[in-house]
Amino acid sequence: MRSLLRICSSVFLIVSLFTLGYADEHFPFLAKVSKGSVNVRAGANTNFEKIDKLNQGDEIVVLAKTFDWYKVQLPLDAKSYVRADYLKIRSNSIAEVIGDKVNIRAIPNSESTSLGLLIKGTLVKVKEQINGWWQIEPPLQAVGWIRQDFLSIKSLSVEPALIRGPVVLPEEAPVTPVKNEPSSLATIEIRGRLMPLDDPKVDIHYELVVDGQVIYYVQSVPNLDRFKGAVVFIKGLVLTNQHQYIYPVLRVITISLLLHDH
User: Which helix (H) or strand (E) segment is 11 a member of?
Assistant: First the structure.
């Protein structure tokens, strides 16, 4: 009986270690706070600013890892700021970035840590103005950091709805189809090479090239940069309401790297 228990314990330990290793090397994945409460920081060190706090059981999308710190998608109530002179109000709660490579700051101060960059034309949701700065809802370009030992794996896959999408103006928002109404989104599976755009769009930085021809623009999602220049297999949704672009826009559901280019 003791031998059987030792064998079972060993198998459990091996499976646990394998699962943890798999999560550490495959991003994104869904994590939860496993003990107490934990600060979300602006960088991978306790010296960086606190921008939010999570409690035990709270869930968070993990995007990458650096040493003992996880890079995470910021919660919607995390603090992030942009200088007011870099924004143009387009509606009651949405503003357009009018500068290029504008920093998202952890606090309303140009000396604070940058949480990410916004390119010209990006739309953001604004909350309140503070001394020449707008507090904004954290966009997909903004990230935070959490110590690894405060998180445990919730799921090795992440539902697309949990990955933050780009902000759009109300008149540009896709219409939710009612029951029995045909969907305006077509799901496809396609193989091609993911190439960076020479002239990036608001939320589109890549194009999918098949047999030397551009077939789709690819909507930006977290961690897409790791596939730059590679041959990939994408399952995604074709957005049929993006008529302002030369090529149709593909929203990624899953993307995988093809090891052989043939």
Answer: helix 2-25
pLDDT at 108 over 90: yes
Q: What is the spatial distance between Cα 54 and Cα 41, in angstroms, rounded to a whole number?
A: 11
Q: How many CB atoms lie within 10 A of CB 156?
A: 13
Tell me the pLDDT of the chain averaged across its residues: 81
The domains located in the chain, with CATH, are: 25-75+142-157 (2.30.30.40), 81-139 (2.30.30), 184-257 (2.40.50.140)
Whether pTM exceeds 0.70: no
Gap between the Cα atoms of 92 and 126, Å rounded: 8
- C-alpha to C-alpha distance for 46 and 48, rounded to whole angstroms: 5
Within a 10 A sphere around the Cβ of 50, how many other Cβ atoms?
A: 15
Supply the DSSP symbol for 15.
Answer: H
Which range has the worst mean pLDDT, 20-24, 25-29, 190-194? 20-24
- 112: nearest Cα among 67, 50, 39: 50
